[in-house]
Write a structure and sequence with these properties.
By secondary structure, the chain is of the alpha+beta class. It folds into two domains: about 5-135, no CATH class; about 145-315, Ribonuclease H-like superfamily/Ribonuclease H (Nucleotidyltransferase, domain 5, 2-Layer Sandwich), CATH 3.30.420.10. It is about 25% helix and about 25% strand. It is elongated and about 90 Å long.
């Protein structure tokens, strides 16, 4: 998409010679105190290019404007966020954008603004790129890549036996890549990871039948093999790495890496707690997808939920 295709508004900063050349709600604005958008000697407004609506126009207000500006104005094309994309090459008024219903000949801003901020007789102007100077725009900052871990276990202690690891890489726009591997519990137990009967019987509950089937359908590999594959998927650079609880997923994975003789792929300073984020006031509810207690499905649901939380609360990811 070109710069000009991104343009949604014209931003106006025009030095008005005679403020009394406008009527607001039928009254002459003798000293310029009535008109919306006055800042000192300037009239500053943003107008939607498509439908001719003056942004933030006061409710219930009308105006008949016939301002003489001549070459004392500056005009920009902006995107919807207000980012300036291009500047009008002349200081004279861009008639096609700011004169509606009659000619202004580059000297006047002429428009009647009705209730709701619409401009009478508005016609969407055609942008001539030759008349605009494209501004140098800094590239948007690269989105940070995060990792969401989820593990299924046969215990709850720090050294619990892990039966599967699910993980996703994601950023503020969505899921980037996924990891899902089953672990041979006999091999993991031989390396010192522990199971407990309470957790084993928890898996026997009928309500977790789908989760059991999903877990048992995974091919099972030695713990060291799975962790090496995880390291290769994760990469060499530490990323913000989330677990569902400050004392569970990441802590148990650290114990597993230690038991298998592998180094953790992320520094502890990059540990993040998803449980804390979902408990914040105003956080939206999760819309879970897939099988609950399947490691990959849970990791994916948690990552998408975290993205939603960040958007709702205005927290950058």
């Amino acid at each position: 998409m070109s710069i000009f295709e991104q343009a949604t508004h014209i931003e106006v900063e025009a030095e008005v010679r005679y403020w009394e050349d406008a009527c607001v709600n039928g009254l002459i604005d003798e000293d310029g105190s009535r008109i919306f958008g006055r800042e000192g000697d300037l009239w500053k407004v943003r107008i939607d290019l498509l439908d001719g609506i003056v942004q933030d126009w006061p409710a219930g207000e009308t105006a008949e404007i016939h301002y003489k500006v001549c070459d004392q104005g500056v005009y920009w094309l902006t995107d919807d966020s207000g980012r300036r994309l291009a500047k009008w090459r002349s200081h004279y008024v861009p008639d096609d954008f700011l004169c509606h219903g009659t000619e202004g000949f580059g000297d006047y801003i002429i428009m009647n603004v009705v209730v709701g901020g619409g401009i009478e007789h508005y016609r969407t102007p055609r942008i001539n790129p030759d008349q605009w100077e494209v501004l140098e725009i800094a590239a948007p900052p690269a989105l940070t890549t995060h990792v969401m871990n989820d593990i299924e276990t046969l215990g709850t202690g720090d050294d619990a036996l892990i039966t599967s690891i699910g993980a996703v890489k994601f950023n503020a726009n969505g899921i980037i890549s996924v990891f899902h591997q089953g672990i041979d519990p006999v091999n993991a137990q031989a390396l010192g990871l522990k199971l407990d009967a309470r957790t084993v019987f928890w898996w026997f509950d009928e309500e977790r039948a789908d989760a059991r089937r999903a877990l048992l359908s995974l091919p099972r590999h030695p713990l060291a093999v799975v962790l090496q594959r995880y390291r290769e998927w994760y990469g060499d650079e530490s990323l913000p790495t989330w677990g569902n609880g400050a004392s569970f997923d990441n802590v148990l994975m650290r114990s597993a890496f230690r038991a298998a003789g592998h180094e953790m792929p992320w520094d502890f300073r990059f540990d993040r707690c998803y449980r804390t984020m979902k408990s914040l006031p105003g956080a939206p509810r999760m819309e879970r997808s897939g099988v609950h207690h399947d490691a990959l499905d849970d990791a994916r649901s948690q990552a998408l939920h975290l993205i939603d939380i960040a958007k709702h609360l205005g927290v950058p990811l």
